[in-house]
Design a protein that fits this description.
Shape: globular
Structural class: mainly alpha
Largest sheet: none
Distance between the termini: 17 Å
Oligomer: single chain
Order of helices and strands: HHHHHHHHHHHHHH
Length: about 375
């Protein structure tokens, strides 16, 4: 088989994989979730194996603990969250009217010297429409049949998929390694190791950061006396894996609700200070220690991947966006590194001392 034939084969394989994923996107969610759980918990099972616990028993212990804790938390929080979300959706129009009555005159006074009265008058309506849409969206997500079907499928199918994948994880890795093209096996293993390190640093680290921020915002806003502080705080923390979006959206919602709820500006300042403190903690302590700088995923690249994945595959695409972005990022850096050391880039100029050795790359192929 020539090099051109191999390239055509892998391009056709990639196209078939993408088409299959797109066609089956509505039923893949519990399987992708099960794979994610198995990937996250595999190091824990490996540690139990090292202390002479059988793989099947270790898998059972780890999964039972994980799902019992997760389901227990959901059973405690979901009724309260659903109630708060539905009340929030119903309360949005009244909050918009309160904000319009308090902030509208100040905005019109500030803009009185400009011929923009019509635009200013439309701002409260636009804000009201946006808040109403967000509230209705959350209400539908927590009360609709599609959401219930997804939750049931995850609760029933995901544990089964997770068990079998986690129990046979090492065997599957060994089998896939045996399928690799022998000439490129070394280079592929090196890149898969880099991808695994990137995913481990980002998914496990960023997931911990989001959980800590969600708990911090929820407790802080609730103690500040903000209505719906629990749901807004958890929402702001859990979507903090999208750079700048979680904290910004949470701060806007919280400060807006505080301005409508409280008669003085002191509680509003306290609510704003909670998000400022959260960002200081995240930027100076959580992210540097839990995620690190070696992830190699630029915030713009993460945002683009999430938007593209959501547009193409819906919620499944959002789940797969960061892993795929990590894979593409690692492979792109690998290709760029060798392109910069190749004659195609240098045109006869000797490569720099820190360039990758071509002979070393060729050794990966043998």
């Amino acid at each position: 088989m020539t090099r051109r034939d191999r390239q055509i084969f892998w391009l056709l394989f990639l196209a078939a994989f993408l088409v299959t994923t797109y066609v089956l996107r509505d039923v893949l969610l519990p399987f992708v979730a099960g794979m994610a759980v198995a990937y996250l918990l595999d190091p824990v099972v490996d540690r139990l194996e090292r202390v002479k616990v059988g793989r099947t028993l270790a898998t059972t212990i780890v999964l039972l603990t994980f799902f019992v804790v997760t389901i227990g938390i959901l059973l405690l929080l979901l009724p309260l969250l659903q109630t708060q979300v539905e009340q929030f959706a119903k309360s949005v129009p009244s909050y918009v009217e309160l904000i319009r009555g308090r902030v509208g005159p100040m905005v019109q006074e500030l803009m009185s010297g400009f011929d923009q009265g019509a635009a200013v008058n439309k701002l409260p309506d636009l804000a009201g429409s946006a808040l109403s849409w967000i509230g209705n969206l959350f209400g539908k997500l927590l009360s609709g049949g599609a959401w219930l079907a997804n939750v049931v499928s995850i609760l029933v199918i995901t544990p089964i998929v997770s068990f079998y994948l986690l129990r046979d994880w090492d065997k599957m890795v060994a089998s896939i390694d045996g399928w690799l093209p022998r000439e490129q096996a070394g280079a592929i293993r090196a890149q898969m190791q880099a991808i695994d390190q990137t995913l481990a640093a980002f998914v496990r680290g960023q997931g911990t950061v989001c959980l800590i921020l969600g708990v911090f915002y929820a407790i802080g806003l609730s103690l500040a006396g903000l209505n719906f502080g629990l749901v807004i705080g958890l929402f702001a923390g859990l979507i903090s894996f999208v750079p700048f979006v979680g904290s910004t959206l949470g701060a806007i919602l919280s400060v807006g609700l505080a301005a409508a709820q409280f008669d003085s500006w002191q509680p509003v300042a306290i609510v704003a200070a909670i998000f400022v403190v959260g960002q200081v903690i995240e930027g100076n302590f959580l992210t540097p220690n839990l995620v690190g700088e070696a992830v190699g995923l630029h915030p713009v690249w993460v945002i683009f991947a999430l938007l593209a994945g959501g547009a193409l595959f819906g919620f499944l695409g959002v789940l797969l966006a960061v892993p795929i972005a990590a894979v593409i990022g690692v492979l792109t850096r690998f290709a760029l590194e060798h392109y910069l050391a190749s004659p195609l880039h240098l045109h006869g100029i000797p490569p720099p001392d820190d360039a990758p050795d071509r002979a070393e790359f060729d050794d990966h192929k043998h």
